[in-house]
Amino acid sequence: MQKKTSPRTALITGASSGVGAEFARQLLASGHADSFWLIARRRERLESLAAELEAAGARSCRVLPLDLSQDDDLRRLADLLEQERPTLAWLVNSAGAGRIGHVATLGPDANRAQCRLNVEALVAVTGLCLPHLARGSHIVQLASIAAFLPQPGFATYAATKAFVLSYSRALASELRERQISVTAVCPGPMETEFFRVAGESSKTTGRIKSLGIETVDHVVRTAIRRARAGRQVSISSLVGQLIRLISRLLPHGFILRVMRRLGFGD
Ligand SMILES: NC(=O)c1ccc[n+]([C@@H]2O[C@H](COP(=O)([O-])OP(=O)(O)OC[C@H]3O[C@@H](n4cnc5c(N)ncnc54)[C@H](OP(=O)(O)O)[C@@H]3O)[C@@H](O)[C@H]2O)c1
């Protein structure tokens, strides 16, 4: 008789595209998860990913079309978690967006929207999932190399990612006793739908992309490995490592002056 094993469930936000969808694929393929709660706003994208995962052997996929920047939708998620009480092996907070442009040009709504999604929603989803995370489980939070330095021309976005990095590291320390790892993932630019939302044609986009494009596959593979090793930060490129080192060694005022000279933030 075949032994029945319990499901290994991953709750993934931002699963309709890019990094979130790739996490679902790689967690299934590597055998680290076999059941999924897939969250984003676009239902049809989530349904198509769910069909793909089920065809590849997933036990179950729950499609949750939610707008995480809306309190009502966060309440729906809270109610569902309360009713179903899943045991989570993975929480991946990948939902996020940035808008390139000066703070004054973007205006208060666009700046606040980034904080609501990248900061408030991530904190809310993490808090809702904490009671359901099993011993030995993993939390993966999508930060960015933008977390290491203030970034004129992308100021609000970079600040939200600095929050994610700081929050995740402190949380990792708090959850040590429960043997839950927390990993802040800090990729450089990737070719996902991200820059379509952020603004594809600006000079700042060109300068950011000139740092070198990372593949989603490599970013996610590295992040899963680092999370399983209990590491607090996952940087998957040499440029990322270098930016982090520079941000630690040199005064940020000086770096900002150099960045302006190089045209960052024009
Ligand atoms: N791509 C890059 O260059 C890059 C670099 C460093 C860090 N990151 C970070 O990596 C993460 C994933 O980005 P990505 O590259 O995969 O970008 P992406 O392809 O644009 O994916 C973003 C995901 O977030 C979801 N989302 C956006 N607004 C939402 C909302 N209000 N409620 C629920 N879900 C929402 C989107 O789905 P719906 O539109 O269907 O809601 C989508 O699934 C983000 O946190 C991003 O900041 C990206």
Which key terms come to mind for this protein?
single chain; 266 residues; alpha/beta; Rossmann fold; seven-stranded parallel beta sheet; 10 helices; 7 strands; globular; binds NADP nicotinamide-adenine-dinucleotide phosphate
Describe what you observe in this structure.
This protein has 266 residues and is of the alpha/beta class. The protein has a single domain (9-261), classed as Rossmann fold, CATH 3.40.50.720. Helix content is 50%, strand content 15%. It has a seven-stranded parallel sheet with strand order 3-2-1-4-5-6-7, sandwiched between helices. Helix 1 (18-29) crosses helix 8. The radius of gyration is 18 Å and the shape is globular. NADP nicotinamide-adenine-dinucleotide phosphate binds at residues 13-14, 16-20, 40-42, 45, 67-69, 94-98, 117, 142, 144, 187, 189-190, 192-194, 197.
Offer a quick outline of the entry.
With 266 residues, this protein is α/β, with parallel strands linked by helices.
Helix content: 40-55%
Contiguous uncertain segments of 5+ residues: none
Quaternary organisation of the protein chains? single chain
Ligands in the structure?
NADP nicotinamide-adenine-dinucleotide phosphate
SSE pattern: EHEHEHEHEHEHHHEHH
Task: List the total number of helices.
Answer: 10
What is the count of β-strands?
7
Q: Please tell me the CATH architecture by its name.
A: 3-Layer(aba) Sandwich
Task: Give the rounded overall mean pLDDT.
Answer: 95
Shape: globular
> What is the straight-line distance between the termini?
66 Å
CATH superfamily: NAD(P)-binding Rossmann-like Domain
